[in-house]
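Re: How this chain folds, sequence and tokenised backbone to follow
How to read it: Take the token row as a discrete description of the fold.
Start of record: The labelled sequence and token lines come straight after this line.
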Amino acid sequence: MKHHYWEAPIVIYLFLGGLGGGIFFLSALFDLIIAPGSGLLFFAPVFFALAALALGCFFLVFELGQPPVFWRVFTTKTAIIKWGAVLLSVAMIFGFVWWASYLYVLGWEWTFGLAAALEGVRPIMLGVAGVAGFGIMVYTGVMLSTLKAHAFWATPALPVLFTVSALSTACAAIALSLGGAVDVNVIGAVVAEIIHEIVHIVDIVLVVAEI
């Protein structure tokens, strides 16, 4: 019997998937609940979330071994990987639309009309992307927990560990990129500093939880 062993691509996919999902979740949490109206500060973090998920999808398709028929994963009724693909797609689509609504900050005047058209639905877009992002974080652990060959993997502890790890890396990514490419006023700078302090404290707690 020929055995297939997961190698580096699937490891990278799991890391990038958790990172992107965590950024979406935390961005939505801050913009919609903790610091309403701070969405513009997450322009750069959301870009990195989109890039991480896109690159992660590439590694996942590469690892599956049949890139031309990747679409079959969406037609599978019972495979756990289908739900991962759905969550990734939802997060990327809604997250990209939200991010595109802020393209005017780059000085692209032709995007002003797009920003005006999407202004009213920004909270919905980021909210949906955030919920999907949370699902992605949990899913990365759930997928491995379905493999019964490893005793520790087949426990509820693994999805929790993956979620905590994803949130930790997302906190670090947000701390490094918050407010990037955006000219903020004094109020925006103060809000950014407060968010930085929060994510630093939360990240410390999450790292201790991981250990």
